[in-house]
Design a protein that fits this description.
The protein is mainly beta. Strands 5, 7, 8, 9, 10, 12, 18, 19, 20 and 22 form a 10-stranded mixed β-sheet that branches. Strands 6, 11, 13, 14, 15, 16, 17 and 21 form an 8-stranded antiparallel β-sheet that branches. The protein has one domain (8-289): Jelly Rolls, CATH 2.60.120.200. The chain contains 3 helices and 22 strands. The two termini are 30 Å apart. Residues 1-39 have low confidence and may be disordered.
């Protein structure tokens, strides 16, 4: 199926139908890869589409997303090297494989004292939710120094800060290190008052790299656990019932998409000499919930 699936006129009509389709999951694993159920079927019969963006407008929908600008504090706390902008060079709706998609482009260019630019968008104060399925169809870039991500932060980040607000990383990839593997994890404040994150669950491709095609990345989140899935198959599970994981039971989270350059996650690797640009394409983002 091409990016975007059916023509735009058919897309909206099919969205509700997607929620009614049963999703067969081949396996569920505990942290570390321990098989806990041979088969897990997530019944989507009673799920409804709560929010979506199909990225079909002439530009980013300001009613749904807020672009972040700048380099944050200390490279967004991660030693990242890019300056985020809302310029069309970094953030635009484009045609990809015959349909529309969001393009987040990382570029090597001198801009406001930085050597790279890119984009990061969030739904904070536009849309947030507590419990449900959040997923996106994305074509990731490949290459050293690139850090694409699809993730969530708790609405409580303003009054409480991070990591007290909680963080769910739906998708991260270490460009140039493992272009064929994505990971997911959670971040929170542990019982001792320090930042804690769980060992990431990893989903490797059987062949090729993620830049070769489109994939659906998602999480299924409820008051007991978070499940991570890639193209419909669960690859990781984390419990959130523990006392020091209360962040994931206390309020709604908002969505974030970005393409970073460099940073701690990559071991501070940078793009190679001669790097000009790379892009992360997003076909759609959807959130499903139960009544």
């Amino acid at each position: 199926m091409k990016v975007g699936g059916p023509p735009p006129a058919m897309r909206a009509a099919r969205l509700a139908a997607f929620a009614a389709l049963p999703l067969a999951i081949s396996a569920c694993v505990e942290p570390g890869g321990t098989l806990v159920e041979e088969f897990l079927t997530i019944d989507l019969t009673d799920w409804t589409l709560a929010w979506s963006d199909e990225f079909e407008g002439p530009g980013l929908d300001a009613a749904k997303w807020v672009p972040e600008i700048g380099n944050g504090s200390g490279g967004w706390g991660n030693g990242e090297l890019q300056y985020y902008t809302a310029r069309p060079e970094n953030l635009a709706i484009v045609e990809a494989d015959g349909a529309s998609a969001l393009r987040i482009a990382a570029r090597a260019e001198a801009y406001k004292g930085f050597a790279y630019t890119s984009a990061r968008i969030k739904t904070e104060r536009k849309f947030s939710f507590q419990y449900g399925r959040a997923e996106a169809r994305i074509r990731l870039p490949a290459g050293q120094g690139l850090w694409p991500a699809f993730w969530m932060l708790g609405d409580s980040i303003d009054p409480l800060g991070w990591p007290e607000c909680g963080e769910i990383d739906i998708l991260e990839m270490k460009g140039g290190i493992s272009d064929d593997t994505v990971s997911g994890t959670i971040h929170y404040k542990n019982a001792s008052g320090y930042h804690q994150y769980t060992p990431p669950g990893e989903a490797p491709l059987p062949s090729g790299v993620f830049a070769d095609g489109w994939h659906v990345f998602g999480v299924d989140w409820n008051a007991e656990r978070v499940l991570w899935y890639l193209d419909g198959e669960v690859f990781h599970r984390e419990s959130v019932v523990e006392a020091d994981r209360e962040e994931f039971r206390s309020g709604p989270f908002f969505l974030i998409l970005n393409l970073a350059v460099g940073g701690q996650f990559l071991g501070y690797q940078t793009p190679p000499s001669g790097f000009a640009s790379a892009e992360m394409l997003v076909d759609w983002v959807r959130v499903y919930q139960k009544p």
